[in-house]
Input
Amino acid sequence: HSPAILAKKYVQYYLTACNGSGHGVHSPFVFEFIKFVLNDKKNYGCYQTIEQVRKELLNNKTEIVVEDFGAGSSIINTKKRKINAIAASSLKPKKYSRLLFRIVQYYNCNHVLELGTSLGITTAYMASANNNPVVTSMEGSIKIANVARQNFNELCLKNIRIITGNFDETLPSFLLGNAKTDLAFLDGNHRKVPTIIYFEQILTTAHNDTIFIFDDIYWSTEMEEAWKVIQQHPAVTLTIDLFFIGIVFLRKEFKVKQHFSIRF
Output
């Protein structure tokens, strides 16, 4: 979507979403999520160190050649890119990166799968949770993955494995050998059909407490359509729309499908 359409959609979301205090939310599970995860204002130790790495990336003018298997960036279309330009256009803002960290930590997600490593900032946040999760992150571009690896080394994170290549090939083979997924963060392909396919493939390793997080659910018409399809999927019982990300729960104890929009 163009910036103008996105802004219009954001205003619409903001006016219709529940306020971020949790008052008036009738689901105890969602109220708990708002209170202890969304509104957790604690300053965790990893926040500063990871943000320092983000700062370095935003100042890094090194040029790399990028292979892109996703829907591409709406900002840069060249194959040769500067690291700081990639950082500026593709890194999740710290507010959302930190939320991912808190979700992994609060719900004790031990097996985390990420589609779209990029330069590794969200990966680092999720891997820093104190339950020391095993994080597998998939990235289309070998050169970008190499930069991410350097960042993980700098942060002394040893619990991350990066798999490079086209998700269409790397994901099915990874899932075959992987018994379960506790949290999946999909941020690597902003097209409708692949997003739905990846969701359905990862579902084969999901369980009652698995959490799916989709990035940029209003990024394009295709992503909006994919989000609607996922919300209606029979395995999905609860979704939370934070505009820039969508969170999906599969818990069977929620007998009736519920969809929440919450200001964040």
